[in-house]
Automatic annotation (TrEMBL):
The species this protein was found in: Halobacillus shinanisalinarum
Transport is among the record's keywords: no
UniProt entry tagged with the keyword Transmembrane: no
InterPro entries: DinB (IPR007837), DinB/YfiT-like (IPR034660)
Protein origin, superkingdom: Bacteria
Membership in a protein family: Belongs to the DinB family.
Keywords: Metal-binding
The protein, known as: DinB family protein
Pfam families on file: DinB (PF05163)
Length: 157
């Protein structure tokens, strides 16, 4: 029951858009566009989401990744992907990370994690859920500005 609740939260059921859908149907030319009053492109946001998703999952899977010294390290150096293949790989990496996060939701959420004083699986998963939710909303906002929302499979307008 608790695992199902975490998975629903991760996937945005009833609360926010499923983060998997934020990249659906986007053309390569759109992901590198900077819209008015937005500090980041879709490419940059999804890159950043991947960075922290990978980081948190690494911890959940028993790793001890080194925290970045500066937040700039969690963002790409370019506003757009070098090419279509890099974009597709970034999207696939995000989807695979979401699946790994779902798997982690099925573990004991009260377990304290090595090297993360005070952090349990629950706390780390909640950080990931909130982070993905926040940045998914940014991508939806940009897509609306570009006239590319909702995605082909539908979504709240």
């Amino acid at each position: 029951m608790i695992a199902d609740s975490r998975i629903k939260a991760l996937r945005g059921e009833s609360a926010h858009i499923d983060p998997i859908l934020i990249s659906e149907g986007l053309e390569l030319k759109s992901v590198g566009l900077l819209v008015s009053n937005s500090p980041h492109t879709i490419w940059e946001i999804i890159y950043h989401m991947n960075y922290w998703q990978d980081f948190i999952i690494n911890i959940l899977e028993g790793g001890n990744p080194k925290s970045p010294e500066h937040s700039e390290e969690t963002w790409p150096s370019q506003k757009k992907p070098p090419g279509k293949q890099e974009w597709l790989e970034m999207v696939l990496r995000f989807k695979e990370g979401m699946k790994r996060a779902e798997d982690e939701c099925r573990n004991d959420l009260s377990e304290h994690l090595q090297g993360n004083v005070g952090n349990t699986r629950f706390h780390m998963l909640m950080d990931l859920i909130m982070h993905n939710s926040y940045h998914s909303a940014q991508v939806v906002f940009i897509r609306r500005q570009l006239g590319e929302w909702p995605p082909p499979s539908g979504g709240d307008s």
